[in-house]
Design a protein that fits this description.
This protein has 542 residues and is mainly beta. The protein is built from seven helices and 25 strands. It has two domains: 95 residues, no CATH class; 435 residues, Porin, CATH 2.40.160. The protein is 14% helix and 45% strand. Strands 6-7-8-9-10-11-12-13-14-17-18-19-22-23-24-25 form a 16-stranded antiparallel β-barrel. A hairpin with a 2-residue loop joins β13 and β14. The longest helix has 29 residues.
Length: 542
């Protein structure tokens, strides 16, 4: 008897029976022709009753009267049934989880969307070459060099649909103090969409350029006023915020204290440089403030033709710990220690690798023993935004002003700055606008760079002018004006190369007569210099 054909015939019969529902069937074999029949007849021997098996079953026992060959057929059928069931279960498990490389990194999502997880990071490799003025001493020159500007890893996701979270660490951030590398560390409840509440450490909702991720910036570095009034003092602060958005608007307000760990940043007024991350020493009593930002699209014809306006406001109290005693430590060191817990200052660099602060207010709270003492008690900031997209052409501009208040300070002590720039895509793309954040997002080329298939990625040219003025009657922080030309090559949405050329047009620091104003400032070395700065960045994010 040819049992390989017999097995195939039995499997075919059972498959047909499975398609119409599970039922038992008797099979008969003609003892002469070896042909199978479903009904008894002359010369036919009953093989047995067969039924569809839906669940894994143990090896079937041979029935009385079965031949060894028939028992082997039974065993083979049971094994095939188990294999098919295992394959079906594996396919079901595969469909339950989706994995892809998305905007947030390697994204994993359950089929019911209850749970999401994304793991990713960014790497920004920078280089800088400078053409300094002649006859400038080495300690006053901008230095050439190369370095890692940012090296971050993040994990974010969703739990039970309504709870979002994110944790991010920058391995080159801060000065190595406890928790200095933590940027985002928050949880968010989104059950009242489009309204949500965030608790933890997150960036201040202030300024279009600051809210836009550094992954999506047009230039290697943010503008002078943004660096001085927002980024320099560490914008990642611990607190709570509420936010909402619509098709053409966004709004967010936050109550925030100081960052997790001091990290040597100048908005940390805790009793030590470790901030509240220090477990074995005094801390607490931080500064705190409220910040809000709102945006609107008065023109929104499409994603490639829109006009954006926005406004930001912030008020922050300054805790002068021990009545300014900690600032005396900085005074005793000649003002070099602007990272004193009470040494709040505003400053900005002019380049990416050499991040010397060419504009610097120095510590804004003097010791009580100085003849002309100053005590910064609070300050507020306001900002205005204007940006637009028209096909491959776009522009962006902001004005930011900071008013200082306290002993000796008056209404004339306001620091301000602005920038304006235009950008154009030679390959026809438009800048990407993120309506949920009221900021710009990831740029996707029309065709990724691919030598084999002829794609050249996206090419963008841009030009910016920015200015910062921190010279007042009681502050000699410096006045800077610079211009930048940029060429950006987007090989694909996750890899880009940036080339910037900057020139310092104006660089002047005045002498106010206040000792505190000169501390931490590079005025004696850099005032009057007008260098040319060449910067390059290779960026990958995933």
């Amino acid at each position: 008897m040819n049992f390989s054909k017999l097995t195939l015939a039995i499997a075919t019969l059972l498959g047909a029976s499975a398609s119409s529902g599970a039922f038992a069937i008797d099979l008969y074999v003609d003892t002469k022709t070896k042909q199978l029949y479903a009904e008894p007849g002359p010369g036919r021997q009953k093989m047995g009753s067969f039924v569809q098996v839906d669940e894994a079953a143990p090896k079937p026992a041979a029935k009385a009267g079965d031949t060894d060959e028939i028992a082997a057929v039974r065993e083979d059928l049971a094994l095939k049934t188990n294999e098919i069931k295992a394959l079906q279960e594996h396919m079901t498990e595969t469909e339950a989880v989706k994995v892809k490389l998305g905007d947030k990194g390697l994204e994993i999502e359950s089929s019911d969307k209850n749970f999401k997880m994304a793991m990713g990071g960014r790497l920004q490799l920078d280089g800088q070459f400078n053409e300094n003025d002649h006859n400038i001493p080495q300690n006053a020159r901008l230095n050439n060099g190369a370095g890692v500007r940012r090296g971050r890893y993040h994990m974010e996701g969703t739990l039970y649909k309504d709870y979002d979270f994110k944790f991010e660490y920058d391995f080159v951030r801060g000065n190595g103090s406890t928790a200095a590398g933590i940027t985002d560390a928050w949880a968010e409840y989104t059950g009242f969409k489009p309204f949500s509440v965030t608790v933890g450490q997150f960036k201040e909702p202030f300024s279009l350029e600051s809210v836009t991720s550094n992954r999506f910036l047009t230039f290697v570095e943010r503008s002078l006023p943004n660096n001085a009034f927002i980024e320099f003092a560490n914008p990642y602060l611990l607190g709570i915020s509420g936010q909402s958005f619509g098709e053409r608007w966004t709004a967010r307000a936050a109550l925030q204290a100081e960052p997790i760990g001091g990290g040597g940043y100048n908005n940390n007024s805790s009793l030590n440089n470790q901030g509240n991350a220090n477990r074995n020493g005094p801390s607490g009593n931080p500064t705190y403030g409220v910040t809000g930002r709102a945006t609107f699209l008065p023109i929104f014809n499409s994603k490639t033709e829109l006009l954006h306006i926005g406004a930001s406001g912030s008020y922050r109290t300054v805790n002068n710990t021990n009545n300014g005693a900690n600032a005396a430590t900085a005074a005793a060191t000649g003002g070099a220690n602007t990272t004193s817990p009470t040494g709040l200052a505003f400053a900005s660099q002019v380049s990416d690798v050499d991040r010397s602060n060419w504009a610097n207010t120095g510590i804004l709270t003097d010791t009580l023993g100085t003849p002309n003492r100053r005590v910064l008690k609070d300050y507020y900031r306001v900002g205005a935004e204007l940006a637009g997209i028209h096909g491959p052409l776009s522009f962006q501009s902001e004005y930011i002003r900071t008013q200082l208040n306290g002993t000796t300070y008056d209404s004339s002590d306001h620091l301000d700055g602005y920038y304006v720039y235009a950008t154009y895509f030679l390959t026809g793309e438009s800048r990407t606008y993120d309506a949920k954040k009221g900021a710009f997002g990831r740029q996707k080329p029309n065709r990724n760079f691919d030598l084999k298939n002829g794609g050249w990625g996206a090419w963008e040219v841009a030009s910016r002018f920015d200015a910062l003025d921190m010279n007042t009657a009681h502050v000699n922080g410096g006045r800077l004006q610079s211009g930048t030309l940029a060429l950006n090559w987007y090989l694909n949405p996750h890899v880009r190369v940036m080339l910037d050329y900057s020139h310092i047009f104006s660089n002047k620091t005045i002498n106010t007569g206040f000792v505190g104003g000169t501390r931490g400032s590079l005025a004696s070395n850099t005032s009057g210099q007008n260098p040319d700065i060449f910067m390059v960045r290779t960026q990958l994010d995933w």
